[in-house]
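Teaching assistant here, posting this on the class forum so everyone can see the example we discussed in section. The complex has three components, and the goal was to see what a joint structure prediction looks like when all of them are supplied at once.
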Amino acid sequence: MIINALNGLVYGSLLFVLASGLVLVYGLRRVVNFAHGAFYMLGAYIGYSVAIHAGFLPGIVVAAAALIAVGVALDLVVFRKLADRDPLVTVLVTFGVMLILEDFVRTVWGTGNYAIDPPALLSGVVQIAGAPFPIYRLFIVLASAVMAGGMVIWLRYSRSGLWVRAASHSPVVAAMCGVRTNVLGPLVVGLGAAFAGVAGIVAAPFLSLNPSMGAEILVMSFVVSVIGGLGSFGGAFISAMILGQVQAFGVVYLPEIAALFPFLLMALVLVVRPQGILGNKV
Amino acid sequence: MANQTLAHSFRESPILRPSGLIVLAILTATVAILTVTGSRITLSLLAQATIISILALSVGFLARTADLISFGHAAPFGLGAYGTALVFQHGIPAEVGIWLVLVAVFALFFLIGLVVGKLNGIAFSMLTLALGQFFFVAISKLRAITSGADGLTVSLPRSLFGLPGRTYQTPDGMFIIAAVILAALVILIYLFEASRTGRLAIGVRENEERVLFLGYRTKILKAAVFATSATIAGVSGVLFALYQGFVSPEIVHWSFSGNALIMAILGGSLAVWGPVAGALVFFFLREWLSDLTEHWLAVLGVILIAVTVAWPGGMTGVAKVLRARISGRGRKGGGK
Amino acid sequence: MSFLFRCENIGKTYGGVVALKDVSLNLESGQVHGLIGPNGAGKSTFIDVVSGRTPGLGRVFFEDREITGISPSAMRRAGISRSFQRTSIFPALTVRDQIELANHGAGGGNTDELVEMLGLGAVLDTEAEQISYGQQRLVDLALALVGNPRVLLLDEPAAGLSAPESAVLSGHLEEIAERWNVAVLLVEHDMDVIFRVCKVLTVLASGRFLVQGTPADLRNNPAVIEAYFGSTA
């Protein structure tokens, strides 16, 4: 029982980190980045390639650095240039970027599945309530907490975080106060991309690598966001935690249809409360 | 022009209707020539392209009428295809079965439309992706009904709607059937847009709040538009199942939806026939390019980006510009 | 004599700000009832709450039946119609098409007289985004007027109109109220229009009811003058 709940916590933490990246970018740029899942996948594959040659930690670092660069590029080349147009245009472009990245990953790494072992330091198990539980999964929760916690602290207590919150809330007023969205843009999108990429490599020993991981996690991030409310970190947290538990218990007790539960939950939320748990009224 | 909305590029213009018919005539002539002189492979490709252009039409219809971009139209398409396979499998009389499938698709997506009608553009798009994935997972997992990844064969009846079953699986036969259905749908859409309900749909798209304050219940209209778009996709799915004789989960995959969307965007939605042209070009482009490169996905991404950013009107936008140049008429009043 | 349209204790709070508190007023057929007050007094908010555009407190009665909380579309079908301060029309549709749309939604009827009265005959087949601002305001008004509504809630119909255009509009409003026996609530800043057309005025200040009376009475009312020109901004 506890083991299931813990597994749910692990998966939920990953979902939250991913959804946070989406929310961060949406808040500032009013755009849902359809390439977000591809960022996750890219981080995982890059991290994997570095890890098997140079170790896990360098893998994480290189993945983060690469994705920051990709995120910054995306903001400078796409989001900034298309800021005046209908947000749907940008969304379509990010979808195009996703296709290109999928092709890139397929070309470089092929279409097979890859598995990666956790680093020696974090392998092994711990006894929880009489059952063995992989230490690495606890690390995933810790890493996610550090990333998410760090972001919350940054947003709440730092000056640049304040600017981001201001610009996300009221871009015009913030601009009048001297906050420059175009400078914050690369920072925020780079950070969001890095979150996705790091989540990818951190999750890799737990979920393994395959060419459809990008699309799958993207859809799950959307489900988390719709249930939690687009634009809400708190909502994303609650929603991710719930979905993590649903997934963990579902896989154990009703494995055939467990994959459908998140969607059914989303449908329920849409009927009862379309703006999501903590979203603003549409 | 600041704040150029997607709706601006999807605006209907009365000038395009006669030219739409001209384009249709040219397309038909080209295709007829190819049919007579072309190889069997070309004909088969044309048949498939025509079937899929109906799917592209459904995506374009939704974009044009409701300003909504769907990333999940492979779902109703797949349901139409699987539905056809299943009704034949269970011995339901063929014609009845197919109508049943289409009615079921309409009803299902009407209900879904009622629920998601409250969502704005981006949230709606996100949702359609999730919806598509839901059906993909459902069809893949419910092996008892769908045989999962193994797929289902479509056992054609001896005769269907007055034609021998075999006709549906010959390239020339299916091409004509699909083309006729396509033409009928295009005409129906034109008629819809000229009707009062069509103008109401424009009203809802432009200013839903005011439409409410004029006494209309917009929820039902929006759900009906969504359901209609889904049913057109379902028709495409039915034809697909009949022609291919086989259905499998790939046809419900998000990449399948993505292709249809790109066809619709490539063709543009300034005129009803846009997505059809986009589908035909897409099919032949893919044939031609897949000999040259394995990076079809990346090419697709580039095409999507290029058309969305630089030519939001797609091929219909180009046609409109050409028409204006030829007739010497400049556009009065900017912002259109 | 009972009132056709009654609003009791209408209130609205945005977060911590009380935009409107306990404002009541009643409308009589054939009469234009003006709602005035300095900027921020809550006049538009009043119409928004009463017409169901935004949720709020209080109760609304039509023909002595309570209709609090019914949807805007149900309200329109019952014969209660409104116009908008920020022009809310359909840019891509022709004037004819949108008036026809409104007419159909409100139950049908002949629109020629209305079109002629508002002087929109010349632009009937022009798309709304191509016509002048003043004409767009008239289209906004036309959409509210078709279909013989019993109650009209007008939110600054003269906003953005020139002086001659406002004068013409005043004439139309008078005619509409009297000839068609409509109960009209008129929110306006333009005092010329108000004093010409309204039989009774309700004055709001800071979201609260200040005073009610005929235009003549209130012209020299010290409380009203203070509300407009007094020390509070």
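For the discussion questions: Residues 1-77+187-233 of chain C form a domain with the Rossmann fold fold (CATH 3.40.50.300). Strands of chain C lie at 5-14, 17-27, 32-36, 57-62, 65-66, 80-82, 151-155, 183-187, 200-205, 208-213. Think about how each of these relates to the inputs above.
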